[in-house]
Amino acid sequence: MLAAELAGRARPLVSRAGPRVMVTGLGNYGLRGTRHSVGMAVLDRLARQLAVAEGWRVDRRCCADVALAAAHGLELVLLKPRRLMNLNGLSVASAAEIYNLHPEDIYLVHDDLDKALGKVAIKLGGSARGHNGVRSCISALHSNEMTRLRVGIGRPEGEVTVSSYVLAPFSAGERERLEQVLTQAATFLLEYILRRRAPTGEPGDRG
Q: What backbone phi and psi angles, to 5 degrees, belong to 68?
């Protein structure tokens, strides 16, 4: 499997010209481990798959944690904003300028209430669908062309409000499934990106 190969093939980014994308995990930086910040958990898993889990550093220019990697000829900027969800877009826009990226080069990973835990889906641009982090990115980048990976967290049951549900940690039962969900989401997104963005002729390019 492609993702399995990457553990040995991925390497830290070196300074060179080539295709580049940015993958951003949306969330509340101070509330890691909550349902609303599952996008950041996916980024941590993606960094592990790309063998740069120890490469996170604080980039004060964009107020974010950044890890740089390369796989199959494609450079990847991994970004976790050090801001609250509704301000994530400020970090994304600053990083896009620093790394010379356009909205179509940016992938946003975020939670989705309308999908059950374990379900992931790609959304190609469009509206924020009520997600404050995505709305912030659209506003800061003046574009809605960013591709999104929507990671299902399900909806609250009973009288639990949406805000308290998304800001709460995953339940014990959900945490039993979460490891598999994070791996599934990271693998799905990485293979999607490499199929479409890896240079022609590279092993990761499937047309």
A: -115, 135
68 and 11 in contact (C-beta within 8 Å)?
no
pLDDT digits (tens, 9 = 90+) for 5-27: 454 444 444 344 589 999 999 99
List, for residues 180-203, the tens digit of each pLDDT value: 999 999 999 999 999 998 886 444
Q: In the 8-state DSSP scheme, what is residue 34?
A: B
Question: What are the catalytic residues?
Answer: 36
In our burial notation (b when 16+ CB lie closer than 10 A, e otherwise), range 132-142 reads bbbbbbbebbe
Q: pTM for this one?
A: 0.88
Burial class, 63, CB count within 10 angstroms (exposed 0-12 / middle 13-18 / buried 19+): middle
| d(C-alpha 48, C-alpha 44), whole Å | 6
Question: What percentage of the chain carries pLDDT values higher than 70?
Answer: 88
DSSP 127: -
CA separation (Å) from 118 to 64, 131, 153, 163? 27, 19, 8, 21
Name the residue with tokens 């600053």: 94
Closest to 16 (Cα-Cα) out of 76, 75, 91, 87: 75
Phi, psi at 124, each rounded to 5°? -95, 95
Mean pLDDT of the chain: 89
Contact predicate 198/74, CB 8 Å: yes
Q: Pick the more confident residue, 130 or 22.
A: 22
